[in-house]
User: What shape does this take?
Amino acid sequence: MKETYRIPIRLLKEAGFQAYYVGGCVRDRLMNRPFSDVDITTNALPDEIQRVFAAYHTLDIGIKHGTITVMIDSEPIEITTYRFDSGYTDHRHPTKVRFGVSLQEDLKRRDFTVNAIAWDGENPPVDPFGGRIDMENKIIRAVGNAKERFEEDALRILRALRFAAALDFTIEAETAAAMRERKHLLSYVSAERVFTEIKKLLVGKGAGRVIAMYTDILGTVIPELLPMQGFDQKNPHHIYDVLTHTLHALDAAEPDLTLRLAVLFHDCGKPETFTLDEKGIGHFYGHARHSMALAEARLDALKADNLTKKRVVRLIEHHDSPAEETLSQVVRRMRKMERDYPLLVALRRADNRGQAPIYYRDDLHDRCMALYHEAQNANAEAIGSKLSLNGRDLMANGAKEGKNIGFLLSALSEDVLEKRVKNEKDALLRFAKERYSDCFYEKNV
Assistant: This one.
């Protein structure tokens, strides 16, 4: 525990108050996991917390719930008065907050036993609900009555799934049953909060297992998963249904969020594009484009940022395209993918790993990456990534304005790449006027 995090506990104790680290930072420390956020709970009231930290910059935006944020060494540390919450009329936020309760009452309001442990940095942790035992047994268990915990805050349903994936834990049976019984309450959770939990779940070590076990719950916020479940592909390349294939691919992918989002949605259009040929073999013509549309709509609904959405949809668009076999093919694909060509190869590799093992083609994907590195190291002028002329040069030599200039530059880049012309200004101008004469005014042809 670094000194920045020790300061608030020490100052509160010196002022005569109780003070404990609580929540995820305690859980992660006990599990020897890295953590960055520190939350502190204390019996000091909000105005008393402000007096203790009068020498520091404080924020009181959470004061009605007893939280004061203290800036220490440019890090925000939330310090919250022991409290008891009630009146969750919207299944998300308490309408009544009572201060002046004990530490145990404060811990009792928390979501899961592994998050209901307090530690003052010196003495043994305070663990009234068996969180350390559940941690040792790798179990996510609700504090107290599971149904009540999820009635209070429906977001806890997704948090349970996220913790199970991130920590690679299992969810205790009574807790899981209550989650299923209360899954309809997820409609009360904002799209932004849903997406935050989904993102953390997807990059977890146990993501595939958790999604497979709780598709019915996740299907309330990502309904595209439901038609995929159990959908027989009837194709020799595939030994799994669409969802199982997807989850095998997910587990085979590196825990990069953009990549895993693309993997999750890359085949979601298959159920609606399924056809059988005369031999009884299943095909999914156009499934990439349909998956793109479904993914974009779902990411819109989840309020994903535009850059993430653009990258994920583009990866899905290209995932089913033939693997590149030459340097020029790789460069051409790189121009379409911008910086995401390595993620495209990773998506194809993961997709391949979700198929029948006899069809694994790691050599093909390795070859693509070798060509990618070759392209990165190649002279930009030699492969046409940087031309010896620009749009002004073309217009000065009679090229028509507007979109025509972009077309010419793109076409000439391709011509240089395919070694149809040298990347020299005069040679490019002569070649352009001959090959793309319609793009120039007649008097200059």
User: Anything to note?
Assistant: The mean pLDDT is 94. The first helix runs from residue 3 to 14.
